[in-house]
Amino acid sequence: MATRKLSDSDEEKIVNLKIAVSGLNQISENEKSGFVNLVSRYLSGEAQHIEWSKIQTPTDEVVVPYDSLAPVPEDHAETKTLLDKLVVLKLNGGLGTTMGCTGPKSVIEVRNGLTFLDLIVIQIETLNAKYGCNVPLVLMNSFNTHDDTLKIVEKYTNTNIEIHTFNQSQYPRLVVDDFLPLPSKGNVGKDAWYPPGHGDVFPSLMNSGKLDLLLSQGKEYVFVANSDNLGAVVDLKILNHLINNKNEYCMEVTPKTLADVKGGTLISYEGKVQLLEIAQVPDEYVNEFKSIEKFKIFNTNNLWVNLHAIKRLVKEDDLRMEIIPNPKEVDGVKVLQLETAAGAAIRFFNHAIGTNVPRSRFLPVKATSDLLLVQSDLYTLSHGFVNRNPARANPSNPSIDLGPEFKKVGNFLSRFKSIPSIIELDSLKVTGDVWFGAGVTLKGKVTISAKTGLKLEIPDGAFIANKEINGPEDI
Questions:
Q1: This prediction's pTM
Q2: pLDDT digit string, tens, across residues 251-270
Q3: What is the assigned CATH class of domain 8-361?
Q4: Domain boundaries, the chain
Q5: Which CATH class for the 368-474 domain?
């Protein structure tokens, strides 16, 4: 890891920053020191320079094919022993703003009136009931989602599941001009702060006291995943493999499609497995990085990590993940937020591996087009698990492109009397003021485009196959 000596002006920035940060009474001492540490690392140019020629494709020992994992013991008691070592942690710091919602994204209704959080709770309840085990659910909130989540979690008090919450760090945004924290300049609103990415999960889990609590309960592994990934369910084969092979860290990767070309990938580099993100790639190699021939897998952000190892590495301040600078603007002031990603921690753990999992374990809902997929007959719902409908012959999902009129969840829902049948759909592109009736079936390649200023209604029961529709006369 290359670092350079801080210049005099950078040294001065750090001194001034420390003074300014010490006066921020909204955050804890841990947050203050974590933030100053991050900024110092950033200013020292601590960056990992990837030498392209040293990159190697990981072998099957490093990225283990899912099919080669040993089957899970059929004995219920053995399975209970496995599960009693597990904690499920969902990253719950995101707001549903891109989909037009104001609260935590995890409370958007996904199917049958159930939210992401409802489905997660039902899944873990089902496991706990089936095996008589105690798998707790831990939610990492941000200061943006904390209050709302606490209210929401109350409705699960009568379930057979222990729910813990903690907050990830709250860091001040940095003013680019002088590298001072925005809140020390009089801006004390929420906009002056930011959560520093999900790489913060490890120190925050420890600083919150939750890590020691979980270790005292005999827990050994945490399964970390985004709360909006419906495919991120507990997998006994992976857990069993990690315990038997003493792997401290496992990242689930899955085959890349053209939709995932910007996703981080696993490489072997100087004898260690590590995550390579597009931001680390020298410009002249970006096209090669995006190629699905050379880099065939990408990070799903489903991570399995040993709790004892987290404690060891956080205590020794050894988790120095690559810093991701994220420039923003607040009230016309240029600011910087420095973030880290949990996947980048892989190279600091012993016997770290990837496992190449089926695509079904990566089903994120980032936009209303994804919501259309999971609410349709392409999926079924059972015990909180969203499963792919076997009636669909094509292994990949249809590509869906909905216009801005469908961007917000409320607008999206109001434009469909019922979600169309899309079992045999290849692609759908919708533009303009389009409204769908009940019981519509879409098949093959469908384009629906309403002329500017005109409302286009697709009638109840319409069957549209391989068609371009610009007006009622085309239906």
A1: 0.95
A2: 999 999 888 888 899 999 98
A3: alpha beta
A4: 8-361, 368-474
A5: mainly beta
